[in-house]
Amino acid sequence: MQRKGKLLKIFSLPEVLAFLKEHKEEDIHGLALQFGTKLSFPLPPVLEWIDCLQRAKKKLPLHAKAMCYFTRRSLEQASSEATADYKANRIAGTKLLNLSGGLGIDDWAFAQQGMLVISLDPDEALNELVMANQALMDVKGIERRNEKAEAFITELGAEHFDWIYADPDRREEGKRRVGLDDCAPAIKSIWPEIQKHSNQQLIKLSPLYPLEQLEKELLGLERIEVVALNGEVKEVLAYAKSGAQNEMVPRMAVEISGNVSYSGVPSPARSELLQDEGYFYEIHPSLSKSNLGGTYAREFGLKSLIPNGIYLVDDRPHPDFFGRGFEVIAKGVYSRRSFQQYLKEQKIIKANLASRYFKLSPEELKKIHKISDGGEVYFFFYTAANGLLNFVHGKKLAYNS
């Protein structure tokens, strides 16, 4: 990949734009074989741009439509337009400092809400692309600076912001990092300065980040939100306030695509045995990550089959359940022989499998029992409160999407 200011120059060449217009929907590997070194411009960065535009159609549809400039790494790290819009609508103020500008999608969303955004990133070549994208998107109110967050925040003087936001870079040499001290900028080390220069703070974290650790590390933490899009957890958001102390940090699980959320404080779920309950439920991934399964089960009167409340049962349907619901077709104690016999009797060769607190993964189960993936049959495997391995055969309820 060409760096040091050369990317924008390459992307702006008339012959590159003509090539892009003609081949933007094609497979980049085929283009590489077809054109190789025959062109008057460097092909690899242009192929990367084409690949990113194709990938961005779902994640960043407005930016892709405007033919914005991307690199793979910046695109992968960036918020989606949907999650960026969600964050921008969760805060209010006039002036925001972004310590980790990246591809600038969050800046774009914050500016759309009328905020003045100062955005920092030490990558000069990326900053050129981002500022060009701002022109393509006709967005105002963003000041992009080629600076490192640590140096900027410690030399800030008396300047103050309504919000300071950070989405720390969590990759180095191909390895994913999740800790506050393992990212760039190192949020924990500059946290006192961050709180000194802002009223409130918002930190975007990896979905892998342990929330209990976050509650211990981040002074002034007010709430945690686990944000999912189309059933997949995308972001963990930590909201903090300067000078605040909150011993009981509430959490919220959010599914953006369905505009569904649930708030509470985590509490353990007591495992119970499945009896004659006719309905089986699997909580939404955002509820699971928030560790709110036990709290949710108690509030709505459902019985938990495993300690974290991911698998729940009841004797009645719950059309508004936050997750997936199934009618129980059959249940039983799992053994390799008995389950294989059940599959034979039911003539099942294709199914969707999930397991929790179970000695075998879904992949291992499929291999052992020669089951292909998919179809309308669902099996859930877990270790019951009495220590026995159990399975549930379920039929997805009609109100599930």
Describe it for me?
- This protein has 401 residues and is of the alpha/beta class.
- The protein has three domains: 6-59; 75-263, Vaccinia Virus protein VP39 (Rossmann fold); 279-396.
- The protein contains 16 helices and 18 strands.
- It has helices at 6-11, 14-23, 28-35, 43-59, 61-65, 72-77, 81-88, 105-112, 124-136, 149-154, 187-196, 211-217, 285-290, 293-300, 336-346, 362-369; strands at 95-98, 116-120, 142-145, 161-166, 171-172, 175-176, 198-205, 221-229, 232-241, 251-255, 260-264, 279-283, 303-304, 311-314, 323-333, 350-356, 372-383, 389-396.
- The protein is globular and about 65 Å long.
- The mean pLDDT is 92.
Describe this structure in a few short sentences.
The protein contains 16 helices and 18 strands.
Could you give the topology of this structure?
Layout: H1 6-11, H2 14-23, H3 28-35, H4 43-59, H5 61-65, H6 72-77, H7 81-88, E1 95-98, H8 105-112, E2 116-120, H9 124-136, E3 142-145, H10 149-154, E4 161-166, E5 171-172, E6 175-176, H11 187-196, E7 198-205, H12 211-217, E8 221-229, E9 232-241, E10 251-255, E11 260-264, E12 279-283, H13 285-290, H14 293-300, E13 303-304, E14 311-314, E15 323-333, H15 336-346, E16 350-356, H16 362-369, E17 372-383, E18 389-396
Parallel strand pairs: 1-2, 1-4, 2-3, 4-7, 8-10, 16-17
Antiparallel strand pairs: 5-6, 7-9, 8-9, 10-11, 12-14, 12-15, 13-14, 15-18, 17-18
CATH superfamily of the largest domain: Vaccinia Virus protein VP39
* Average pLDDT taken over every residue: 92
Q: What is the CATH C level class of the largest domain, in words?
A: Alpha Beta
What name does CATH use for the topology of the largest domain? Rossmann fold
Low-confidence stretches: none
CATH architecture field of the largest domain: 3-Layer(aba) Sandwich
